[in-house]
Amino acid sequence: MVNNHSQADPPKKRIFYLDQLRALAIVAIILCHVANLWAGSPNGSFNWDMRYFFNIAGRFGVPIFLMLSGVLLLNRDYKIWEFMKRRFPRILNPFIFWMIIAIIFGVISQDKFSYFNSVTSAVPYIVKTFLTSRWYVWMIIGVYLVMPIINDFVKNRGLRGVEYFLLLWFITSILSSLSLYFNKSMYFLDLSFFAGPVGYVLLGYYLHNKEFKFSPDKLMIFGLVLFISSILIKTFLVYNGQLDPGLLRYYIFQTKSHLEIDILAFLQAIGIFMVFKYLNHENTHRITNKISSILKEGIMGKLTVSLSRSSYGIYLNHYIFIGIIGVSGFDILTHNALKWVPFIVIVVLLCAWVLLLILDKIPYLNKVTGYH
After folding, report:
1. Which residue, of 69, 82, 133, 244, has the greatest Cβ tally within 10 A?
2. Contact residues for 63 (Cβ-Cβ < 8 A; gap 6+)
3. Could you state, in order of their start, the residue ranges of all structural domains in the chain?
């Protein structure tokens, strides 16, 4: 979500497909959170089924943000202290700003919550909720702390070293699946290092820099098939109780994170990454080139870049608008999820985006809103 261009090594120009992926990723995250509004639907109902599908379909959002960090921050020359000094304010300042805004919103609307008796009960609850629900922030802090180490590994070992790590990642995924099947945790063979966010960081760097021997059109189609099939398979397995991502995270690896680490999550992220990388490749079919040009040029291109630059701020503030739905008295469970999830996603996205753009025009606030 954070725009990862380093001031120590700025890119010569924006890579448009990375902006496309970042913009799509924030939409995917909002899709997950909006779909969860139907979590109270009766098991087996149509709305419950749609909630599962939309939630799983949007699960590639955070992995894509991690992959983009790998593309933009690995194999670079920077000093550790300079890297930390530039990266952390870009994460923490917007985080603190939007937490203050959430507190203000919560205090104003406290009479809507039966469990808020006063400001003194509302503020601690909101702070605790904000700190725990924004788990991506804490995860990316950990990633940035280890990034200089990974960076040196990539610089010294190159793509072959990355392939070694990713191979171990794949093996870890297979072993974790067997652990789930036999209901035995992998306590003794500790491969949790290969099942966390670092794998996605290296995966993004690898896919961005690896040159495959197939044509761009074939690779794009392969990515699309991989993306769609992984969503459908995972939806089927989760719905039928044959795959529990939560059990995988909390029991097998004990990562205590919401990050998806199963093999289907990896394939889903790989698929969508390949679609947009090769959609924008210069050696694609003329029809593909036409589609790519339409998405790049004019208003579509400008909106994509704006949404990409707004992604971190939107991640931090979109919860406010989902919260407004919660206190509005709107009975969400009585409405068809297939129709209303996409509609609410658009509404929440536009409100969060417009608010961010307005605040970005205000002096001083434009430094802390998360628009980069």
Report:
1. 69
2. 200, 259, 260, 265, 266, 268, 269
3. 16-367
